Amino acid sequence: MLATATNYLPYEGLVNFIPNEGPYVITSDLTLSDEHLWFDSNRPNNLPEYGKVMKVTPQIVNIGNATASNVKIRISTNDEYVSLIGSTGTVTELLLTVPSIAAQDTVSNPPIFFFKVSDLAPANHNSVIKLETVFGNDTVRQNKPVQLYAPQLAITSMTIDDTEQGNGNHRADFGETFNCVLTIANAGNMPISGGNLFIETPGDELALPANPIQFSAIDANSTATVSFQVTANSTIQEPTIAFIKSSLWVNYYFAANNFPVKIGAVVEDWETAGFTNMEWQNSSSKPWTIVTTAPYEGTYCAKSGAIGGSSSTMLRISAVSTVADSISFFYKVSSEENYDKLSFKIDGQTKEEWSGSTGWTRASFPVEAGTHTYTWTYSKDYWGNQGHDCAYIDAISFPSGVVNNPVGIHETENTASFQIWPNPTTDYIHVRMDGNIEGTSCVYRLFSMDGKLLQGGHLTDSNCEININNYNSGVYILEIEDNLHQTQSAKIIKK
Ligand SMILES: [Ca+2]
Ligand SMILES: [Ca+2]
Ligand SMILES: [Ca+2]
User: Which helix (H) or strand (E) holds 442?
Assistant: First the structure.
């Protein structure tokens, strides 16, 4: 018999058609116990949790109308997370025997058996114990479901709290000390009593505390946060993206995640009182202006140009972002609803439009890695004005690792030097080694911005090509190691 309903797990059960004479033996229930686990007295809850050996007491019933003699129950399972335990260790099959059961009777002191739950059992896993009961010429087959219990861990997010020792703008700034707050989720059906978190960073932009970092108990189906103090290297004075790699182990359950940390994120807050902070295009016949009229933050914000009907005024910027992230800003409009609008476009595609009367509102849009053009346009239809008839924007936060100017070779204390071109590029990077360095003794490695090695090898000539045609648009790091094992690196921008 199969019973199903919307939003419920299907139930599959056997309907016994019992002969109206003779014995009929079934196992009505399996009672699980962990009371025998004197060595694991912390969790005596009779639940089949990972790593436990469970004692099983079957309720054996003769629902027929005659005595059953010489009853044999064969027990097996195909489940990869449950193993039957016999006197010699793990076995594939167990045999229980009951000499006789009277009609309509339950075995008062039934034979027991044991199974072990795997150390690797997934949370909420449904395992099946198979029972084959033989009495006389009859055989009854039953499948008994047993749900297993385990944690299921993930490190889901990281936020920056710079309210205690930093400047409270919720971003990592140059030389700032702040707290990183990681969220650990336990989506399983078993709590954990705590564990050790390990963190590392591939570069030297961030100073991290020593490992491990302890975190406390997390209930089943709950989250907890763990916080640690980080300092951004004060010698870094350009917007940079650093990474924190985090991992944790609780017995055999593992979770890991990498998080980017924007240091000195590129923000346009108009506090320079002009459009010169970044390379803005503001060349409409009625261009945007900087005003002090109730900005979202600071003293200044940008206001759309004073246009008439059937015209528009546009503010635009192009930038490269090194990783997939987002752009956010605050807008305020005061206009004729549905007719005179502020629109925001990424690469010419309208993301959203706003009209009518709004207060300062935050807007945020995801951005893929690569070069993008962001456009804010205030446009009017042919007829009608309302409110201030304009739009305002303030506090634009650009995606992680926005690069305003492509960066060439980064010189270190090294006698060798390299030239790399073109940069930005679309498919090939040419590398030329200057001076008297033999090309074949040099090694190159190409990394993604999160530190993953993409390709590497020996440079075969003093003037060689590296093919990056297969990679996505974005920023990559090319590292070159010379014959003295000194390395230099450069940011490569793939268009
Ligand atoms: Ca800050
Ligand atoms: Ca401002
Ligand atoms: Ca209008």
Answer: none
Decide if 384 contacts 401 (C-beta within 8 A). no
Q: Quick one: which ligand is closest to 339's CA? A: 3
Q: Which residue has the tokens 């940008």?
A: 302
Please name which of 117, 40, 108 lies closest in space to residue 79, comparing C-alpha atoms: 117
Distance, CA 85 to ligand 1 centroid (Å)? 58
User: Which of left, alpha, beta for 474 (phi over 0: left; psi -120 to 50: alpha)?
Assistant: left
Ligand number nearest to the C-alpha of 291: 2
Q: Where do the domains of the chain lie?
A: 2-147, 153-263, 267-397, 409-494
The DSSP H or E segment spanning 445 is: strand 443-448
For residue 231, report the distance from its CA to the centre of ligand 1, in Å: 11
What's the pLDDT tens digit per position in 305-327? 999 988 999 999 988 777 778 89
CA distance 322 to 402: 6
pLDDT, tens only, 357-386: 999 998 999 998 888 899 999 999 988 999
Which architecture characterizes domain 153-263 according to CATH? Sandwich (2.60)
| C-alpha 170 – ligand 1 centre gap (Å) | 5
Please give the CATH number for the structural domain made up of 267-397.
2.60.120.260
Do 2-147 and 153-263 share a fold? yes
Distance 225 CA to ligand 2 centre (A): 33
Q: Which CATH class is domain 409-494?
A: mainly beta
Q: Which ligand is nearest to the CA of 335?
A: 3
Task: Tell me the ligand closest to 300's alpha carbon.
Answer: 2
pTM: 0.59
For domain 2-147, say whether CATH 3.40.50.720 is its number: no
Residue 229 gets which letter from DSSP? E
